[in-house]
Amino acid sequence: MSTAAERREIMAATGAATGAATEMAALEGGAQTSAGAGRETRLDTLRALVLSAVIVVNMLTISGLAYLTPDARAEALGPFDMALWHGLDVLFEGKALAAFSFLFGLSFSLILRSAAAQGEAPGMLFLRRLLVLAGLGLFNALFLFWADILMSYAALGLVLPLAARFSQRVLVGAGAALLASGPVILALGGFARPEPVPQGHVENLEVYASPAYGDTVRQNLDMVLNATDGVDSLLLMRLFMLSGLFLLGLAAGLSGMLKRLRAGVPVSWLGAGAALMGLGLGLQLGAGAEATLVAALGVLHAPIMALGYLLVLGYLLGSARTGWVHRALAPLGRMSLTGYLMSAALGGAVFYGWGLGLIGTLGTAQVLLVALASIALLAGFARLWFAWFLFGPWEWLWRSLTRMQVQPLTMATRAGAAG
Fold first, then answer.
1. Would you list the domain boundaries of the chain?
2. pLDDT digits (tens, 9 = 90+) for 327-346
């Protein structure tokens, strides 16, 4: 029997065993139950595209460009690189994180459905998932890239099991209220307009250029503990933004949005998404206004544009012409945790002193090329990996620690467990 035939036979034998867990696998990076069925590749591809935007934003920091002050950056970069920097800032800064946060909330609805199908208690399962996620985030912050988001997700995600008890209408209202509360509190409290956390930490250029990996770890710890000093407005906005997007994502998942993705997305999504993107862009331009409330409302541009992006991409990915995009990126979406962590490792290998030591030496365009090359490498790895394995490597660890039992990793081990 050929290897391909063996794999098909194993997948057929394990289809019944994995059917109830398919939607949980959509979050944890699990395998399909059969070729072309069992997973919504549009969601995987959407997750991969959002992850790619996150990687671009993170790579601009790892490269050293984000540590510069605006004046120093303008002096260091040529006109084209400076224009590209501003363009990437408008397109991705804050929006990538916001879109990823919405998808995190949506993914919790998958956990609810999977747990219900298997007779499990979703609250306890999710709490263990968050605890493990916090540990993975701490590992990332110390040993890979200090600007970790996983620990924030683990902490703020605690609201989701409680929130799932409420109706979709309440969730949408609460999510929108949380998003709106941030700028209102900024305005009434007299907080300064949020500024990027890395900006001005120029000492990082020298420290991360050190060939001693221990220096990287110590500086990561220092950034985790001290980088947010004096940026209360940014932390406040992030608290409200992430929480609000979690609830909106949960409401979308509970509304049956995934079923509508499979059935076909109406063209109204395209119009609504374009309108939100335009509104967000207008708010971003107004963020520099002198009027306090107008400037505060401007910080809403990130979640509004992010929701617009998701609607537009959700519609476009339904086209038959985007099949190649699904084939190229869906596997990476299935291992988004692995992609997130390994992109930080790749960035360190290129820019830090223990790697190639290119920190502070490349312009915006060159850094963007490094980010795109990293995305392509991760997408290729994911495609090869899933030819043999059920879960991404970090997803498998996350799943095993959550369930406090070593989970099957290969198709053969799952077939043995099912038999």
1. 39-387, 388-419
2. 999 999 999 999 999 999 99
